[in-house]
Design goal:
It is built from eleven helices and 15 strands. The protein has 494 residues and is an alpha+beta fold. It has a domain of 260 residues. Strands 3, 4, 5, 6, 7, 11, 14 and 15 form an eight-stranded antiparallel β-sheet that branches. It has a five-stranded antiparallel β-sheet with strand order 1-2-10-9-8. Strands 12-13 form a two-stranded antiparallel ribbon. The termini are far apart.
């Protein structure tokens, strides 16, 4: 714990305070809510359905982006170290492989006299050359890989640029073509993308955090629950029309396989800031070489719904394999007490070994709840079995292994959360049911949900019926600043 306390203290000192953005659930802990560029909002790992020989790692930051928030829009931070950590030998320590992404911002011509970040001078249709003249602010980045503590390896094949925020049709008339130019090859045979996309995390957020004051009944009928393109009654997708910044890595599965061909891996994403940043009189910034972690994420909604509020900042600053220090919150989840209080349900609130096994282990282990001692590393990773074939985009079920038809008959999609996580997965409904005890008593847990079953108002080509992009980088076109729209219940979606 002393290590964590020291880390937390450093994290507090390292934070660069920014104006709070839209109050998304992504802003889950007091300190990180003030630091959006380091706020790890969603983390995904899944076997690619475009190329089954590849695995996709995706990390989103800067939540609740109002598309029209000019003139600076939304950029990655040069001071933040973005990392993806992989455990490929199932020892619950994610130090086997680490991917690091660092950004560099430049203010370009014409002579720093134009006051905007992006302008149609002429319209921006590329990231380099004359087509990019209107990119007054441009970000480049590097991707490095560290394997088993050895020297980092640069995976880039040239200069790589982040795709800027979607300003509007005059400034960026062919935004998806521009985004395509932001997909770059990696030396290992994979690809990378960094830039703005639509936030595909769908949830009636305001209702959930108004102490589960849902707009619809929290128990869905089998037919409604089986519908993967449903906005039920007065339910609202609070994040409809908002954007996010994403980093997407496509990596050959052969590169992340562990000993003896192991294809069951665990991973999490993190952000870190320099321990010390000095701003000189000329405006130049000097950062210390060492960084301290300020945010992390493996499984969705853990810090929001499981970790106690007074411990959430400490949790963000700790290593994912140090979860034994927080095991009490998994054993005695407060969110289940809240569910029972609000809805009068009898779901178990103590000795939840099922949550420990599901979220902190690769396979069930000895009981730890109430024992007072944990004799093994427990790690909060998003785990995925890459032996499971990917489900084609159009056939994916939002409830993954818990999917069923309109009559309630099981139709499991084994490639979905909690076996990894895809953008299409309805993690809100799944997490509510796991919290209620579906892993140990499936017949006693109803179809809990918020009534939002798809990504409302998604834009772009190559979309499924429920608003998910079928092609790399797998998130839909970001909403543009001029024509942005947030869709509420009762509105026409198209």
């Amino acid at each position: 714990m002393l290590k964590q306390i020291r880390s937390l203290t450093l994290a507090i000192l390292a934070l660069v305070i920014s104006a709070p953005v839209f109050a998304a659930s992504h802003r889950e802990a007091p300190l990180i809510a003030t630091d959006p560029t380091a706020d790890n909002t969603d983390f995904y790992v899944f076997r690619s359905w475009e190329d089954p020989d590849k695995v996709i790692f995706m990390m989103n930051v800067i939540p609740g982006q109002e598309p029209g928030a000019a003139p600076n829009y939304f950029n990655f931070s040069d001071d933040v170290l973005y990392e993806i950590h992989v455990d490929n030998n199932k020892n619950n320590i994610a130090g086997n492989i680490t991917y690091q992404i660092r950004f560099r911002t430049e203010i370009r011509t014409p002579g720093n006299v134009f006051p905007l970040s992006y302008a149609a001078l002429p319209p921006i249709t590329g990231l380099t050359g004359p087509e990019s003249a209107g990119l007054i602010l441009r970000q480049s980045y590097t991707v490095t890989e560290t394997r088993f503590g050895k020297q980092p390896k640069d995976l880039g094949t040239g200069t790589m640029y982040a795709v800027p925020s979607n300003v509007g049709p005059r400034t960026m008339p062919t935004y998806e073509d521009l985004a395509t130019k932001g997909i770059f090859p990696l030396k290992n045979g994979g690809r990378v993308f960094a830039g703005q996309r639509d936030d595909a995390f769908y949830i009636d957020l305001g209702s959930i955090f108004d102490t589960l004051n849902l707009h619809v009944s929290p128990i869905l009928s089998p037919a409604d629950d089986a519908n993967d393109a449903l906005l039920l009654g007065a339910a609202r997708d609070t994040l409809s029309g908002f954007n996010v910044n994403t980093i997407v890595l496509e990596i050959p599965i052969s590169d992340v396989m562990g000993p003896n061909g192991n294809k069951v891996i665990g991973a999490y994403g993190s952000t870190s800031r320099p321990k010390v940043t000095v701003i000189r009189n000329n405006g130049n910034r000097e950062n210390s070489s060492r960084s301290v972690q300020v945010s992390r994420m493996g499984n969705p909604l853990v810090n929001e719904l499981i970790i106690a509020k007074n411990t959430q900042d400490l949790w963000n600053a700790s290593d994912a394999e140090e979860e034994a220090d927080f095991v009490q919150f998994y054993c005695n989840p407060g969110i289940v007490t809240a569910i029972n209080t609000v809805f009068g349900t009898p779901f178990p609130t103590t000795n939840r070994e099922d949550l420990v096994n599901a979220l902190l282990r690769y396979s069930p282990g000895p009981p730890v709840c109430g024992s007072g001692k944990v004799k093994e590393p427990l790690a909060e990773f998003l785990r995925v079995d890459l032996n499971v074939p990917p489900t084609p985009a159009a056939s994916q079920k939002r409830l993954g292994p818990f999917a069923h038809d309109a009559s309630g008959n099981p139709t499991p999609d084994k490639a979905g959360f909690p076996n990894g996580r895809r953008p299409n997965d309805d993690v809100v409904d799944v997490v509510l049911r796991v919290a209620a005890g579906i892993l140990t008593a499936p017949s006693s847990v109803p179809n809990l949900g918020d009534g939002v079953n798809f990504n409302i108002g998604a834009l772009g080509s190559n979309l499924t019926s429920n608003g998910i992009s079928t092609a790399f980088p797998f998130l839909p076109t970001p909403h543009d600043g001029r024509d942005r729209r947030h869709i509420d219940s009762g509105e026409a979606i198209n």
